[in-house]
Specification:
- With 351 residues, this protein is α/β, with parallel strands linked by helices.
- It folds into two domains: 4-121 and 159-222 and 274-304, P-loop containing nucleotide triphosphate hydrolases (Rossmann fold), CATH 3.40.50; 226-268 and 321-350, no CATH class.
- The chain contains 14 helices and six strands.
- It has helices at 16-25, 27-32, 42-52, 67-77, 95-104, 119-131, 139-147, 152-165, 167-175, 196-206, 226-239, 246-260, 273-293, 322-350, and strands at 4-8, 35-36, 82-86, 109-116, 183-187, 296-298.
- It has a six-stranded parallel sheet with strand order 2-3-1-4-5-6, sandwiched between helices.
- Helix 7 packs across helix 8.
Length: 351
Amino acid sequence: MTERVYLHVGPHKTGTTYVQSLLMANRDQLAEQGVLFPRKTFGGQSRAVRELLGEKAMPTGRAVEGQWGKALDELAGWDGPAAVFSHETLSGTTPSQIGAIRASLQAYDLHVVYTARDLARVAPAMWQTGLRGRQHFTWQTYAGSLRRPGPGRRGGAGRRFWYNQDAPAVLERWSKKLPVENLHVVTVPRPGNPPELLWQRFCTALGVDPAGHDLTPRRSNPSLGTAESELLRRVNEALAETDLDNAQWVHWMRWLGRRLETREDMARYTLPAEDLGWLTRRANAVIDGIRAGGYDVVGDLDDLVPQPVPADQARHPSDTSDEAVLTVAVDAVRRLVEHLAEQRADDDRDG
C-alpha cells in the first residue's frame, strides 16, 4: 500500500488542464518514479472524485457509483511511495467534505497542492468558463459580483469565485484537518516563461524529477475571443427562456465552445483597466495570506501580482460589435450543420 496521497485541488483556470494532461502523458514514467496516477485518465479520476464528494452523477448525467471504491483499491495495491489525484472541484470543498475526504484517506499521509495564478488573468478566464456552461452575465455584471459579493444569484457568482480562488481561505479550510507542512502552493508562471516551468514546479511539489518527461499536452483549454464569448453569452441568454434539459444545455454549449476556440485571428480580451486596481489589492491580500500561512511555496509569489496591459493592447471582454458576433454565429451554424450531417451519415450506415 502506498504511503502518501497528493490531492491537486486546482482551482479552475490555474494551469490545471495542462498539468492533468501531462500527468496522463507521463503516467508510466511517474509510476517508474514511484507515483501512481489512479484511474488512468482525467475522466476516470473525475468520476471517482465526484463520488467522493457525495455526488451521484457527472454534470453530463453519467453515473459515478463505485468509482471511488475502485480508486481506493488501486491505492491499496500500489507499492510505490505516493499517488496523485487532480481535480478542480476539490478547491471548492466544504469543511464537511474535507472531513469526509480525510476520513476516507485516513490510512495515508495526505498532502494538498494548490496552484495559484495572477487574479487579473483568472477572473476574465472564469467569466468565459461560465459562458461555456449556462452563464449569461456580461463582464460588467460578473466583475461587479467579484468586487462586491452579496446575496442573490448575481452576488453568488462572486461568492463562488472567491470560495475557490482565495488561496489562503482554501488552504485554511484544509489546515483544519492537515498539518501546514502538508499544504503546498505552486505558482503559475507569468506569460513569457516556457510552459514546462509550471510542470517542473508541480513535479517539485510531488518530489519527482521532471527530467525526461513527455511535455506534449494531450488536452487543452484555450480561451475564446471577444466575439466568440459574446455569442455564447447571447445563446445562453436565449436558452434561459426555454425548458432545455440542463445536461443537454451544458453538453452543447461545451461542444460549441470547443469548435469556436479553434477559430483563427480571434480578438483576445484582457482585464479592463478599470478593474485592475481592486483586483491588484485583492491579489496582494492573497499573497500576504499565503506568506502568513507558512505554506510550502514552489515558485515565486511575485508571479501572482497582476501586470498592467498597455492601453493600446487592452480589449474589454465585452468589447465586440454585432457584425463580429454575426460572423462568428454563421461559422458556428456551419460547424453545427456539418456535425449533424456527419451524425446522420453515421446513423444511415448503422441502419
